[in-house]
């Protein structure tokens, strides 16, 4: 088990917090999740979330009822959710379902310490949603092995035109951060793809410490991200996956994924992998999946199998793959292979000479600079880090930590944060970008400085 985190590490994490001050990003979308068809097409229109809609204020940390996050989420029509309270929302082993479109959840507006959901998951089952600067810490909560508590920290379910950015997802029982939905809806490939998740952008998130042997009915289930069969235009940009046995991410049959400037730290048995399973596609013609991977970094850790490749191919279906400037090393810095296989697989790896997705709109860093950049900016509220985010990022920087089974393996379990209140004053915020006009976010300390990095400013233009 991982060593417990003590207060001395807060001081060691100060360097990470200071670096974060120049890397604050907002919910503003880049050119959205690019298309990943065989012939690259123009990116889809970016979602505006709830822009122009009602301002709904969260005023209580209660699970539900008037003034709660749940009540605001369930309100109909375009809406922007802001927070006049900061602290912990305990969902008591339940999943928050988002089913009504045209929504922005702006966790950056909360007073310090921000918004943390515990004993919780989020299932997003609609379209045109932006989720920013929220922490979700699912946890086993003492449930017995092989029981029915198996929540994702976050997943889209047949959703589309969604941006999930600057969130922290920890201790999931199933995946930490996924794009899912039904495998076959309709009679054609086009209908299958329209009926499941598509046009999803995950940007600047931290997904860490998926619990291995916890309460999932299948047993071991430390998983990073699942991109389900036939999901398309799914983009992972500038995310950190840390301490998962598998799925960083797992791309299923016929799915189309773009991965740019992500960091995979301490994967266990598999990092990136693709698998179209014959049993799941019985009676259906196979569809070739696609992955475009540029400028990503995989670093082995204490839980990583020796010789683990960056990408592994399993199952029966073929994969089209374009890779450029990706690097993979073990915990000692020795180079690891780029590709490998698992199981008796008939699948072919079809190497492409050009990206299989439209990568315009992404500011792409050389892989050698990715890790330092992400340690400064990935995750929720980088100007106002939570202690467990600091711990995880510190472990990544120092090559420490490992896959865990329970939230208590790394400390005292769920955070206990002081409740803070502060009014949301509309005149103090740019309601288009949901950035403070003063250039300083709630809880941000230090001298006057730019609230947006140059990268994020460019994306807004």
Quick structural summary:
This protein is mainly beta and 461 residues long.
Number of strands: 30
Residues in helix, % = 10-25%
State the helix count.
7
How many structural units, i.e. domains?
A: 1
**CATH topological fold name:** Pectate Lyase C-like
Largest sheet: 12 strands, mixed
Q: Class by helix and strand content?
A: mainly beta
How many angstroms separate the termini?
46 Å
**Second CATH tier, the architecture:** 3 Solenoid
Task: Quickly name the level 1 CATH class.
Answer: Mainly Beta
Quote the average pLDDT.
88
| Rg, alpha carbons | 20 Å
Strand content: 25-35%
Which overall shape is indicated by the principal axes computed on the Cα atoms? globular
Which parts are unreliable, with pLDDT below 50 for 5 consecutive residues or more?
1-43, 447-461
CATH superfamily: Single-stranded right-handed beta-helix, Pectin lyase-like
Can you characterise this structure?
11% of the residues lie in helices and 30% in strands. It has helices at residues 8-12, 14-20, 69-73, 189-194, 370-377, 387-398, 454-460, and strands at residues 54-58, 79-83, 85-98, 103-106, 115-124, 127-132, 135-137, 154-157, 160-165, 168-170, 178-180, 198-203, 206-208, 226-227, 232-237, 240-244, 250-252, 256-260, 263-267, 272-276, 289-294, 297-299, 311-315, 319-324, 327-329, 339-341, 349-351, 420-421, 429-430, 435-436. Strands 3, 5, 7, 8, 10, 11, 13, 16, 19, 22, 25 and 28 form a 12-stranded mixed sheet that branches. An 11-stranded parallel sheet has the order 1-2-4-6-9-12-15-18-21-24-27. It has a 5-stranded parallel sheet with strand order 14-17-20-23-26, with no helix packed on it. A hairpin with a 4-residue loop joins strand 29 and strand 30.
């Amino acid at each position: 088990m991982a060593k417990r985190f003590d207060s001395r590490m807060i001081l060691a994490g100060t360097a990470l917090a200071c670096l974060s001050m120049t890397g604050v990003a907002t919910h503003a979308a880049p050119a959205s999740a690019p298309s990943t068809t065989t012939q690259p097409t123009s990116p889809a229109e970016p979602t505006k979330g709830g822009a122009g809609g009602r301002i709904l204020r969260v005023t209580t940390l209660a699970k539900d009822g008037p003034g709660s996050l749940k009540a605001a989420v369930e309100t109909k029509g375009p809406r922007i959710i802001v927070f006049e309270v900061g602290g912990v929302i305990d969902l008591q082993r339940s999943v928050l379902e988002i089913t009504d479109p045209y929504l922005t959840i702006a966790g950056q507006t909360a007073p310090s310490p921000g918004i943390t959901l515990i004993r919780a998951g989020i299932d997003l089952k609609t379209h045109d949603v932006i989720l920013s600067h929220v922490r979700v810490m699912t946890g086993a909560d003492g449930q017995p092995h092989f029981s029915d508590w198996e929540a994702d920290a976050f997943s889209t379910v047949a959703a589309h035109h969604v941006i999930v950015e600057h969130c922290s997802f920890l201790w999931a029982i199933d995946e930490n951060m996924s794009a899912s939905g039904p495998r076959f809806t309709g009679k054609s490939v086009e209908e299958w793809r329209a009926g499941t998740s598509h046009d999803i952008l995950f940007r600047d998130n931290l997904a860490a410490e998926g619990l291995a042997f916890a309460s999932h009915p299948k047993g071991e289930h430390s998983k990073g991200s699942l991109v389900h069969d036939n999901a398309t235009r799914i983009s992972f940009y500038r995310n950190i996956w840390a301490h998962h046995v598998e799925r960083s991410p797992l791309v299923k049959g016929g799915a189309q994924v773009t991965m740019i400037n992500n960091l995979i730290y301490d994967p266990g048995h598999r990092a990136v992998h693709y698998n179209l399973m014959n049993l799941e596609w019985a009676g259906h013609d196979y569809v070739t999946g696609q992955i475009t991977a540029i400028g990503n970094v995989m670093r082995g850790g204490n839980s990583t199998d020796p010789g683990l490749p960056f990408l592994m191919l399993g199952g029966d279906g073929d994969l089209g793959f374009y890779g450029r400037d990706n690097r993979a090393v073990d915990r000692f810095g020795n180079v690891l292979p780029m590709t490998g296989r698992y199981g008796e697989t008939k699948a072919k790896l079809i190497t492409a000479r050009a990206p299989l997705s439209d990568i315009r709109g992404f500011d792409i860093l050389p892989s050698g600079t990715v890790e330092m950049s992400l340690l400064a900016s990935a995750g929720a509220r980088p100007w106002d880090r939570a202690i467990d985010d600091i711990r995880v990022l510190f472990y990544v920087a120092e090559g420490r930590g490992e896959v865990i089974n329970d939230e208590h393996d790394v400390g005292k379990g769920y955070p206990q944060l002081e409740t803070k209140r502060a009014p949301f004053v509309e005149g103090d915020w740019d309601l288009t970008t949901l950035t403070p006009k003063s250039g300083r976010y709630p809880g941000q300390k230090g001298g006057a400085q730019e609230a947006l990095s140059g990268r994020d400013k460019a994306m807004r233009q």
